[in-house]
């Protein structure tokens, strides 16, 4: 159930544990999640779907802008990064509320042409408690060949204290798209990703990389109170990447050494 206004979207979800278990399995984690269990951080991504009829979708499969996200006449969307505060864990099998609003938007000129920068804030409540606050940074670009004026990706650090290799398949990307109800065609339709958007392959979801980094940070560092991340270069589905950690700094390094994402973990005080 949801209520929408031009500046606020309110949604409710029962947080079905089967969906969280499906995400766990898709991430290579075998533990089932039952009603009453705390959800791993960032698993709220598989809930609070906002389905639209086909006529309300853009060419890329994303919902058309307008309403909560202002229409700046820039149709190509990318998730550029985000920041999260974990106040307490959401609990599987219990109804939760999500409130979303646009807190900033601007149009500017970048090296690759006009850009629309949008920041959304999402607050997740269960009972009367605020559980998670998320700021989501989106970038919108003009309708153009993605191979034109592509910035040179930065080179990733090589001073990690621990690293973990991850690889992907088209099936894995499709499953994540399905679980998050993400219709963006660059993640599952290879001809579209290559011929229309100009990528070398299917693009690994930015939030999927962030999810893997969050779980990696939790395993290596302990319970998180916050996490921020920024996408810096796309990763293709056929590439093997490394999740890297040094202190509370984390990053994703592509097979050619390029930096695909940077992140910072915040830990709860003991």
Task: Please specify the SSE layout and strand pairing.
Blueprint: E1 2-5, E2 8-13, H1 17-26, E3 76-86, E4 96-110, E5 113-126, E6 129-141, E7 162-166, H2 170-180, H3 190-196, H4 206-221, E8 224-231, E9 241-246, E10 249-253, E11 259-267
Antiparallel strand pairs: 1-2, 2-4, 3-6, 3-8, 4-5, 5-6, 7-9, 8-11, 9-10, 10-11
Helix pairs in contact: 1-2
State the major sheet.
11 strands, antiparallel
Distance between the termini: 38 Å
- Counting DSSP H or I runs of 4 or more residues, the number of helices is 4
Q: Kindly name the structural category.
A: alpha+beta
Proportion of helical residues = 10-25%
Number of strands: 11
Order of helices and strands: EEHEEEEEHHHEEEE
| Low-pLDDT regions | 1-5
Shape: globular
